[in-house]
Amino acid sequence: MLHEITPAVLKNQYTDQRLPRPDDRLFIYANRQVLLLADQEVPTVKEAVANWQVNPEQFTYLFAIDDQAYFLLRQTIPGENYAGTPTLRQLSPQSLAFASTIAIHLGNWYETNQYCGRCGHRMVPDKTERALNCANCGHVEFPKIAPAVIVGVTHGDQILLTKFLSNYGYDKFALISGYNEIGETLADTVRREVKEEVGLSVRHITYFDSQPWGFSGALLVGFFAELDQAADIQLEKDELSAAKWFKRVDIPHDDTTASLSWTMIEAFRQGKMKH
């Protein structure tokens, strides 16, 4: 999966003491996209300062992967190429693709929390942890992480795959998914999402794995669940265009297991559902 970058190591401890160095990488963020160079690389601090005369005093330290540090600058530079999720998840090496997901997550958080949601005053970065503080009313804002489930519903040697409506921008089959709601356990979310999207009941819910998915600010948690009793699919047509049972031999292939959803599909295809 995208976050599996071993032997590289993510070092996500926050500090406001790390100053930019010429070889550090700079994510220049705007509207849930980041600037990429022509070679699909993230510019170094040295390149960014030379090319666009950006001010290092406006950079925010994000994290490091091994000895490579990453900074953030929220700025639109006219005429340059900004890339979103479809491109960023394909970046190489995989550690750079993973880094871009975190940059999108934090870039969106900083952008949407410039002002206090309680009193409207400007927020300022905390000195010791990754948080934004309001000096006027004392409100503290931490990065938002939204838990969501991915559900592989199985029935013998079949698995249920669904497809979104065309306006969702993703036209491949995938597993049922949805966000955890207030007051629910993750198992509750599994049962509710399956019932809402395809009208089926499930049992024997078992955990598979999890994945941080910064593109949407989510923590994805994967479960397999067995069909409780045979019934006709009742498709949620406001969200889905199709839902279909596939035998292992008939499951469509995908060229990547970057996502938790397709990692789970491949695990079912190979009969390796215990992670």
TrEMBL record:
<dbReference type="GO" id="GO:0005829">
    <property type="term" value="C:cytosol"/>
</dbReference>
<keyword id="KW-0520">NAD</keyword>
<dbReference type="GO" id="GO:0046872">
    <property type="term" value="F:metal ion binding"/>
</dbReference>
<dbReference type="GO" id="GO:0006742">
    <property type="term" value="P:NADP+ catabolic process"/>
</dbReference>
<dbReference type="InterPro" id="IPR050241">
    <property type="entry name" value="NAD-cap_RNA_hydrolase_NudC"/>
</dbReference>
<keyword id="KW-0479">Metal-binding</keyword>
<dbReference type="InterPro" id="IPR000086">
    <property type="entry name" value="NUDIX_hydrolase_dom"/>
</dbReference>
<dbReference type="InterPro" id="IPR020084">
    <property type="entry name" value="NUDIX_hydrolase_CS"/>
</dbReference>
<comment type="similarity">
    <text>Belongs to the Nudix hydrolase family. NudC subfamily.</text>
</comment>
<dbReference type="GO" id="GO:0019677">
    <property type="term" value="P:NAD+ catabolic process"/>
</dbReference>
<dbReference type="InterPro" id="IPR049734">
    <property type="entry name" value="NudC-like_C"/>
</dbReference>
<dbReference type="Pfam" id="PF00293">
    <property type="entry name" value="NUDIX"/>
</dbReference>
<dbReference type="InterPro" id="IPR015376">
    <property type="entry name" value="Znr_NADH_PPase"/>
</dbReference>
<dbReference type="InterPro" id="IPR015797">
    <property type="entry name" value="NUDIX_hydrolase-like_dom_sf"/>
</dbReference>
<protein>
    <recommendedName>
        <fullName>NAD(+) diphosphatase</fullName>
        <ecNumber>3.6.1.22</ecNumber>
    </recommendedName>
</protein>
<feature type="domain" description="Nudix hydrolase">
    <location>
        <begin position="143"/>
        <end position="270"/>
    </location>
</feature>
<dbReference type="GO" id="GO:0035529">
    <property type="term" value="F:NADH pyrophosphatase activity"/>
</dbReference>
<keyword id="KW-0378">Hydrolase</keyword>
<keyword id="KW-0460">Magnesium</keyword>
<dbReference type="Pfam" id="PF09297">
    <property type="entry name" value="Zn_ribbon_NUD"/>
</dbReference>
